[in-house]
Amino acid sequence: MSDDNNIKEIKIEGQNIIENIELNIWEALIPVFALVGLLAYNIFFSDGELLGEYSNQYILLIGGGVAAIVGFFNKVGVKRMMTEIWENWKSIFIPVMILFLVGALAGTWLVSGVIPAMVYYGLQVLSPEIFLPACIVIAALISIATGSSWTTSATVGIALIGIGTDALGMSGGVVAGAIISGAYFGDKMSPMSDTTNLAPAMAGTDLFTHIRYMTYTTVPSILIALIVFFIISFNIETTGSSDVSGFLNTIDSTFNINPWLFVVPGAVIALILMKTKPLKALGAGVLLAAVFAFIFQAEVLSGLGSSNFGAVVQSIFTDTQIVTDNEKLNDLFSSGGMKGMLWTIFLIICAMVFGGVMDAIGALARITKALLSVASTLFGLFASTVISCLGLNTIASDQYLAIVIPGKMFKKAFDDRGLAPENLSRTLEDSGTVTSVLIPWNTCGAYQSGVLGVSVGEYFVYAIFNWISPFTTLVYAAFRIKIKMALNKSV
């Protein structure tokens, strides 16, 4: 028993479950309603700028404040709330360090020429007969390299849309669907992606375990998408040719492009396969890329700062912009370094405040108990998680919140069932990350539609990977395929 007479701690499967015997379900939902209401107002009436650039972070803190007030009325002390927040913050120390390294990796891979080399060689595999599957592969490779589906669509995606619609005469919807399918596959599987770091942080597992476990559902989903686009390619008439010479010439004239640059990502992949700890693997990727920048891109570095060393340091910590004669490539050849990860890190920190207070007052336990009473089966638990992620993508219009809130809400429920945390992190990505782009008013749907010049309605059916992913994770749950139990026990 704790110091608060109405609070009791129950240990289930090694987890401390905080239950408030005086808190009812409607009181537990008050902070959730406040949070969702403010988020909806922010999106629909304030264009996402209710409280400035960090609106979502502030709203999470306000939600935490509302939860604290509910706690005060139910005899929960400040000390307990602060203890739970502190425990939450301690649990995300490693994920936050990884996010900083991800930012550093993005910067050094840019100035070393690794990302430009991937774009350069990727664009050369295009041909009309395999154009659509090639769009998936190219977008996937670039998204894995950059960790961003948005950057991929805004750069290579624009080029591919132009080639597919203008040069080959294809429908914008089918080309955009292929690009988005590949971009979000890469976004999910990249250790540099913020959502790929966010999901395991919410669920309580590590980055590379999460990525390895996602392959079970993600690879079949992208293979289905590839098969469908191969079929479409053989049954679609094309005209003209796919000319990417302008992009290739710009990249070649700006960077020293050669196959040796692939040693850097190859080394990181090898370390990951050898199950090296994420901090070491990503740190090695940053250092190796920095060395390659000095060896291969001295001319690029000289144009970025007062010294080559200063340019590399800048790429690690702050903004880097390599200007070319092609405006469409300039967005790709920019990076925010560690500084660029601060928005996501602040979001995680604020989410931990909201989740910590909700946990301390017993709200999470009360809500998850109510959900479990409805989702009485293992499949019901997974289905409830999927529906919650889809609902938040629709209501809150933000993929980060569609990961953060269900992640905190369902973590206890998955723990109670003895399920390994990677089950939750995988489900969050399968249903939260990838479906955001299918909602027209979601930030992702609005962004992709605006960048590619194709409405969500036009590409929805062709974004096969995105809408099939939630079904894949539900099929796995229904037939208990690769459902990992805690302590390495399988169902």
Explain what this protein looks like in three dimensions.
By secondary structure, the protein is mainly alpha-helical. It has two domains: 7-92 and 342-488, no CATH class; 94-339, no CATH class. It is 69% helix and 3% strand. The strands form two sheets. It has a two-stranded antiparallel sheet. Strands 3-4 form a two-stranded antiparallel ribbon. Helix 13 packs antiparallel against helix 15 (308-317), helix 19 (378-395) packs antiparallel against helix 24 and helix 20 packs antiparallel against helix 21. The chain starts with 6 loop residues before the first strand and ends in a 13-residue tail after the last helix.
Q: Please state the average pLDDT score.
A: 84
Distance between the termini: 33 Å
Question: How many strands, which pairing sense, and closed or not: the largest β-sheet?
Answer: 2 strands, antiparallel
Envelope shape: globular
Portion in helices: 55-70%
H-E string: EEHHHHHHHHHHHHHHHEHEHHHHHHHH
Number of helices: 24
Strand arrangement, major sheet:
1-2
Report the C-alpha radius of gyration, rounded. Answer: 23 Å
Structural class by secondary-structure content: mainly alpha
Task: List the uncertain runs.
Answer: 10-17
How much of the sequence is in beta strands?
under 5%
Q: How many domain units?
A: 2
Number of strand elements = 4
